[in-house]
């Protein structure tokens, strides 16, 4: 073997070793990472959630069903069964789009935004913001518990233009402009279960 061929071969081996160091660990069967520590650190995935409805005057055990997808890039998507606007909910609502960050190896906090509108006129009337705190329950890495800390809102005032054209920018709006959702309750218990592949 020539010296140049040997050098090329060594370069390929070095490149392959470097690539193995920077690639994520492979997923095991069912979408779980190999190793308890890696699995314990993995919030991303699709979850079925339940928001406790008792704080809103409903009987114990009644929950608002929720679909939650946490993405690895720090974004998330939440859609709950009340978004269609059935009574006693008086508004239709968009899915919630959000961002999340770790607050510990086993915990995260998240903020979501969504629109609420009049079911009759189909006009947007509010921008809403929800803040969540979630953590893995015990050693169960397929179960989250926590709270929906706050639900706040900004008006989309209808006037010369419909509300959907006059919603304030929720990113630049000062915190003093946000008001608590009427009838809202702080720190509502929330739990979720990871959707497995079967």
SSE layout and pairing:
Blueprint lengths: L2 H20 L13 H5 L4 E8 L10 E8 L4 E6 L11 E2 L2 E9 L2 E11 L6 E14 L2 E16 L23 E2 L7 E7 L4
Antiparallel strand pairs: 1-2, 1-10, 2-3, 3-5, 4-6, 5-6, 6-7, 7-8, 8-9, 8-10
Descriptive notes:
The protein is mainly beta and 198 residues long. The chain has a single domain (36-194), classed as Lipocalin. It is 13% helix and 42% strand. It contains two helices and ten strands, in the order ααββββββββββ. Strands 1-2-3-5-6-7-8-10 form an eight-stranded antiparallel barrel.
Instruction: State the end-to-end CA separation.
Output: 51 Å
Number of self-contained structural domains: 1
Shape: globular
Number of E-state strands: 10
Helical residue percent? 10-25%
Secondary structure tally, helices = 2
Beta-strand percent range: 35-45%
Reading the helices and strands in chain order gives HHEEEEEEEEEE
Question: Which CATH-level-2 architecture?
Answer: Beta Barrel
Structural class: mainly beta
What's the CATH C level? Mainly Beta
Q: Describe the main β-sheet briefly.
A: 8 strands, antiparallel, barrel
What brief labels describe this structure?
2 helices, mainly beta, globular, eight-stranded antiparallel β-barrel, single chain, 198 residues, Lipocalin
Summarize the structure.
The protein is mainly β. It contains two helices and ten strands, in the order H-H-E-E-E-E-E-E-E-E-E-E.
